[in-house]
């Protein structure tokens, strides 16, 4: 793997909303709109992906589909239960060992994703908080040569920053 992108799902219906089970929470209209902007912003950065793997929960799978569509990355989305809400970050790390993509994006939930970043960057047994992903936030990690489970944090972007990139007018080439 050359680059691992970790994307937290977008704004969803609030937990505890009457009549909506947590596992069925979907993105809000505002969440969908912002994710289209995030996808365009990521495209503007020149992000290229081999695969997008998402949690099966609606708020995450919708996030993956919207971002893929906005980036023109059709047909790249795959669902895997390992990214469900509540999964231990070590299980996700172990699953990552089996992935052969060069540029992989995973879409899931906190606290597992932020804890996964800490695990991959700071290592097992560390209590360090490397970063806390906001809804729609993304981190890019690159593997270190020291072993399959160690990564360096290349960059982290808030949803607002990535959305602003989608609104920037490119300068004409001369």
List key phrases describing it:
5 helices, 6-stranded mixed beta sheet, Rossmann fold, alpha/beta, globular, 174 residues, single chain
Give the topology.
Layout: E1 3-8, H1 29-44, E2 51-54, H2 58-71, E3 77-79, H3 89-96, E4 103-108, H4 112-122, E5 138-143, E6 151-157, H5 159-167
Parallel strand pairs: 1-4, 2-3, 2-4
Antiparallel strand pairs: 1-5, 5-6
Brief account:
The chain is an alpha/beta fold and 174 residues long. The chain has 5 helices and 6 strands, in the order βαβαβαβαββα.
Protein described:
With 174 residues, the protein is of the alpha/beta class. The chain has one domain (3-167): Rossmann fold (3-Layer(aba) Sandwich), CATH 3.40.50. It is built from 5 helices and 6 strands. Strand 5 and strand 6 form a beta hairpin. Helix 1 (29-44) packs across helix 2, helix 1 packs across helix 5 and helix 3 crosses helix 4 (112-122).
The major β-sheet equals:
6 strands, mixed
CATH superfamily: Phosphoglycerate mutase-like
- Quick one: CATH class? Alpha Beta
CATH topology tier name:
Rossmann fold
**What's the end-to-end separation, in Å?**
36 Å
Low-confidence stretches: none
Number of domains: 1
What is the number of strand segments?
Answer: 6
CA radius of gyration is 16 Å
């Amino acid at each position: 793997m050359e680059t691992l992108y970790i994307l937290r799902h977008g704004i969803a219906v609030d937990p505890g909303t009457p009549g909506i089970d947590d596992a069925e929470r979907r993105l809000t209209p505002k969440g969908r709109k912002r994710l289209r902007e995030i996808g365009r912003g990521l495209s503007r950065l020149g992000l290229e992906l081999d695969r997008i793997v998402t949690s099966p929960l609606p708020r995450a799978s919708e996030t993956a589909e919207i971002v893929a569509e906005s980036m023109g990355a059709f047909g790249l989305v795959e669902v895997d239960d390992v990214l469900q809400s509540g999964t231990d970050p070590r299980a996700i790390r172990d699953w990552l060992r089996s992935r052969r993509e060069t540029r992989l994006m995973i879409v899931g939930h906190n606290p597992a994703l932020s804890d996964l970043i800490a695990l991959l960057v700071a290592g097992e047994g560390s209590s360090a908080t490397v970063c806390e992903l906001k809804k729609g936030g993304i981190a890019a990690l690159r593997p270190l040569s020291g072993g399959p489970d160690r990564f360096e944090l290349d960059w982290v972007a808030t949803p607002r920053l990535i959305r602003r990139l989608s609104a920037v007018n490119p300068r004409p080439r001369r």
